[in-house]
Amino acid sequence: MLHGRALRYIDEVARQGSIRKAARELNVAASAVNRQVLEVEADFGVPIFERLPRGLKLTAPGELLIAHIRETLKGHDRLQARIHALKGLSHGEVTVATMGTLAAGRLGDVVADYCERHPRVELKVTVCNRSELMEMVASGEAEIGLGYNLPEDNRMQLTAVFQHRLGAVVAPGHPLTAKPNVRVADCLIYPLVLASHQLSLRPLIENLAPATAELRPVVETNSTEMMKRLVRRPPHVTFLNRVDVDQELRDGDLAFLPLMAAAGRQRLSLVHRSRGALSSAADGFMQAIKDHFGQGES
C-alpha cells in the first residue's frame, strides 16, 4: 500500500529526475527517499524509474503510477480544503496555468483582489504556452487553465468563453489615432512589432492582413511587455487584445484602435480537468475570473 510519505517522495523524484535533488527539496536524507522508491518497486515487482547516467526517468509502469499518485495527492488537498471550508475557513491552494499576456494583465488584477479577500488561500500561477497549459490541466498539475484559442480536449471541461477584441496598439498622438477603427492594411506603412509564431495571436493577425501583403516586422517577440514598451515610441505599431493593455489605457500611456474585421477577436477559454471535483477555493477563484473577464465588452 502506498502511504502519504511515499506518494510525495516519488512525486518529487519524478519532478526532479534525481533522488538527491528530490531529497534536497523535501529536506530529508537521500537514503530515506531511495528507500521509499526501492520499497515501492519491490511491492509492484517492476522498476518505476529507469536509472540513466544523467538521472532517473519514469518507466511505462512508472508513468501509470505517477498519474495515480498525483490524482491521489490532489484529491487529498481537495478533501483537506473542504474540511476546512466546513469549519468556516477560507483555506486551501489553487494552481492556475495561463499565458504570459494574461498573467501580466487583467488576471493579475483578479489574483490581487482574490488574495485580498481570501488571505488564507495560496495561489500558484504558472505561465506557459498553449500545449503546456493543456497538459498541466489534463494531468491535474493545475486545477484551472485560462488561455487563448485552446483546442477541444475531452480531458478538460470548458467553463466559460470570452471574446476579446483585437486592435492596433500605438502611442497617444500616433497618426493612426485619427481613425476610429483601423484595418491591418492601414498599419503596414509603419514599423511593426509583432508577436512571434509561438503566440496564438500571430496567426490571427496574419489572417486579417491583405492576402497580397507581407508582414515584415522590425521586431518579433514572444514578450507582450516588450511589445508594449516598444510601441510607446511612435511610429511603431503592434496588435494586442483590449485586455492586454487595460492598465496602459487607464494611465494614458497607450492607445487601442479596434480592428474593423469581424474576425478581429480572440477566444479566451476558462477550463478545468474533467475528472474529479474542484476544491472550494478553486471554485471561488474560477468565479472571480468569470466576474472580472465577463464585465462589459472586452
Topology:
Layout: H1 4-16, H2 19-26, H3 30-44, E1 49-52, E2 55-58, H4 60-86, E3 92-98, H5 100-103, H6 106-117, E4 121-127, H7 130-139, E5 144-148, E6 156-170, H8 184-187, E7 193-195, H9 201-208, E8 219-221, H10 224-230, E9 238-241, H11 246-251, E10 255-258, E11 265-273, H12 280-293
Parallel strand pairs: 3-4, 3-5, 7-8
Antiparallel strand pairs: 1-2, 5-11, 6-9, 6-10, 6-11
Helix pairs in contact: 1-2, 1-3, 1-4, 2-3, 6-12
Structural commentary:
Helix content is 43%, strand content 22%. It has helices spanning 4-16, 19-26, 30-44, 60-86, 100-103, 106-117, 130-139, 184-187, 201-208, 224-230, 246-251, 280-293; strands at 49-52, 55-58, 92-98, 121-127, 144-148, 156-170, 193-195, 219-221, 238-241, 255-258, 265-273. The strands form 3 sheets. Strands 3, 4, 5, 6, 9, 10 and 11 form a 7-stranded mixed beta sheet that branches. A two-stranded antiparallel sheet has the order 1-2. Helix 9 links the parallel strand 7 (193-195) and strand 8.
